[in-house]
Amino acid sequence: MIRTGIGYDIHRFAKERKLILGGVEIPHSHGLEGHSDADVLSHAIADALLGATGAGDIGQHFPNTDESLRGISSLEILKRVTKMLAERRTRIANIDATIIAEAPKIAPHVSAMRQKIADATGVRESNVNVKATTNESLGAIGRGEGMAAIAIATVEVD
To answer: pLDDT tens per residue, the chain (158 residues)?
Structure first.
């Protein structure tokens, strides 16, 4: 059986934090605020994978009230979600994600992000797509207050 899930995440910018997207540190004046490393891309992908299997969402499995998860790498979250999928006899077929931000430029980092996400989820890099767009200066993202990501995941269930 083929199943599909959608994930979305948004975080505001914060000073004195590293900007991590798809497990890659991106040079920028601000990072993202969050309980973990605040990697919006990995969070959106994790939610898409969980959604595809009917396993709830990232907040259920990795709540921001759990102090043992403070600062956790979102690639580790992806690894744990992938393990949950394997326990449900589910294989990841494809991941497609979009980062929504006015800055910084994402294109130079896409290849590294794809590889890190592929490694964390156990799929070929060719089964992971990452792209970026702006919000055309509209809303909070358009004003440069933060960034968001949306992802879709397709899985095969035995």
So the answer is: 999 999 999 999 999 999 999 999 999 999 999 999 999 999 999 999 999 999 999 999 999 999 999 999 999 999 999 999 999 999 999 999 999 999 999 999 999 999 999 999 999 999 999 999 999 999 999 999 999 999 999 999 98
Q: CB under 8 Å to 132, separation ≥6 — which residues?
A: 98, 99, 100, 101, 106, 107, 110
CATH class given for the domain over 2-157: alpha beta
Entry pTM: 0.97
Ranges of each domain in the chain: 2-157
